[in-house]
Amino acid sequence: MTAITEVVDLDRRGCIAVLTVNNPPVNALGAGVRKGLRDGIAAAAGDASVSAIVIACAGRTFIAGADITEFGKPPKEPGFHEVLDGIESCAKPVIAAVHGTALGGGLETAMACHDRVGVKAARFGRPEVKLGLLPGAGGTQRLPRVVGVEKALQMIVSGEMIGADDALAHGLIDAIVAGDLTAAAVTFAERVVDEKRPLRKIRDIEDKIAAARGKPEIFAAFRKSVARQTRGFKAPEHCIRAIEASVNLPFPQGLQRERELSAELMASPESKAQRYIFFAEREAAKIPDVPADTPAKEIRKAAVIGAGTMGGGIAMNFANAGIPVTVIEVAKEALDRGLGVVRKNYENTAAKGRLTAQDVETRMGLITGTTDFAAVADADLIIEAVFEEMPIKKEVFARLDTLAKPDAVLATNTSTLDVNEIASATRRPESVIGTHFFSPANVMRLLENVRGAKSSKTAIATAMAVGRKIGKVPVLVGVCHGFVGNRMLHQRGREAEKLILEGALPHQVDKALYDFGFPMGPFAMGDLAGLDVSWRIRKGRGEKSAVADRLCEMGRFGQKTGAGFYTYSADRTPSPDPEVEKIILEVSGRMGIKRRAISVDEIVQRLLYPMVNEGAKILEEKIAIRASDIDVIWVYGYGWPVYRGGPMFWADSIGLKVLRDRMLDFQREHGDQWKPAPLLDRLADQGKTFTGQ
Ligand code: 3H9
Predict the structure, then answer these.
(1) Whole-angstrom Cα distance, residue 104 to residue 134?
(2) Which residue among the candidates 88, 128, 495, 614 is catalytic per the annotation?
(3) pLDDT tens digit sequence for 397-426
(4) 639: which of 36, 248, 267, 611 is 20 to 30 A away, CA to CA?
(5) 502 catalytic residue (yes or no)
(6) Residue 533: is its pLDDT beyond 90?
(7) Is 543 annotated as catalytic?
(8) 356 in ligand 1 pocket by Cβ < 6 Å?
(9) Shortest CA distance to 96 belongs to which of 36, 54, 44?
(10) Is ligand 1 within 6 A of the CB of residue 101?
(11) What structural domains and CATH numbers belong to the chain?
């Protein structure tokens, strides 16, 4: 075996050369790998005793893409095109042997090969769009030539992976192999040599793109179909344009067009933000005093207390991950109703073709409903999701203490209450932790894990690990009212209310945030969540909200009652309501406020700057471990547009001095709730940032 570079080896199996990439953890295509592939191919090509070459990878995966850490830095030689050209124009057959995931530049490498084989579990994808990029090393030109334009559009613009069967059906791989992958790829290569198969260069394949030529309607229809989910993003449209170029231009010119579009994206703030969030999400998994090797408890069985909307949604996560879960409710009717909603949710998904009827039954089969609280006894993890009131929560935890296994992790789904007080109802506060799911709990990716003063490292490691296992993005936070997300949201809510009293109307406020990139603004969100929920919390805390309280008193609880800040048609389409406007004007008048026109810029600043300021306080109080954790919370839990990177990253991109000075203006105008947090003040003075960007 010869080491071509530190991360690429060249070996021989008879007349077949095997180039193995070994660049853990994911064999990213960094400069060492690129050089190794280029030089390894050249060495094998120049060796008369080699008749074909296999490219394989060591470790858990095939090449998972370009090395994202190299982006935004001066380019390192050799470039992707040079390496891929070297593979494609090699005079000997080159065969890719794929296991794990062939993603981005990894799939690019495989497509530059003449043939591709993969194991049954291999997956293939173009995740660049999720980083605000496009497949920029020929991928937008090669993929449509292999799989056809429609499939390429779908893969490149969604960024989702496909499995080996789908890849085989679409010609992306030539065979699915079993047993030892490298051995199977070598056998495949020997056959290619024996049969003297001509080299197949994807760049030369014409039929699939020819079929789409002169049919702009394919692209028009596709644009329309993705318009909603790609709103505000820059990369999807660039991807589509590059694929159009594959159809309308010869390969070299298509590559050139792809290069221009790729360069624009690479330099865009959107991509910078998306790449930042990619790493921020992974960073959130790291807890300084709970190292990665801290033993987490294996969750063989879970229990959820409460079969309401949250409890049912939480239970679905476990069933989806194949973990049996018991749902416990006090009354049989409430239990049946809750499980009925769960079944309906699954059936709706099945009706959309995303689950089979069998999947629905399998998942429902993993969920057991009972009214017997003692059923918690065999659960490794118990999540309480009962009414948001301290006495009730404490009663539940006191009971859990007597019934749960000694080493069970006891979690509360509280969104506002003090986890330490809840834990104090047990004799084992070290086993208690908060697992704050977001509604709908089976859909939203964020999981705010709340560390109590006494939560053990095992409880923390378990909550983080189980979160990942059920497909969430867990972020560890500390105890305070509302934790990180809702505490910041509270600031936004306060200003939203003031804005409507000063002169804006709910739909104007909502539109400003919708245009910023949120799926909806604060008033539409309140209507969706139910205005009665925050009304109850306010009453509990002795707080008031002039307009929202009035709407609640009128029974306008939002979408569920057909009216809230908006009125809703039968299909839940909102429209501004003159009656609400009248109430707002009346309240403004009563408070002696002279209404004025408020600009979109001011609305955005008034809503989002206080959140940043609260984020700074949260950091100072060490409620969040790092600024990027706050950003992950807002992107995955509250619909902050990922292409703006989260509130703290966004603040950095504005410049903390600019933001702080604007806050000082607002402080002069509106009072001390606008006083910049000491951390913000300090960083602004020092010309620094929250996130180090
Ligand atoms: C691209 O290819 C552009 C091309 O078109 C050419 C343009 C010219 N680079 O996710 P994990 C790190 S764009 C650098 O926890 P998993 C990651 O940060 C790229 N580092 O593992 C983490 O580090 P740490 C297209 C990377 O098993 C560690 O690896 N490709 C990269 O849950 C483990 O990652 C993608 O977008 C990378 N490309 O999931 C694929 N990838 O341990 C991105 C990972 O220090 N990657 N790291 O925190 C993934 O989707 C997942 O990592 C993968 C494994 C599915 C591969």
Answers:
(1) 9
(2) 128
(3) 999 999 999 999 999 999 989 999 999 999
(4) 267
(5) no
(6) no
(7) no
(8) no
(9) 54
(10) yes
(11) 2-266 (3.90.226.10), 302-477 (3.40.50.720), 485-590 (1.10.1040.50)
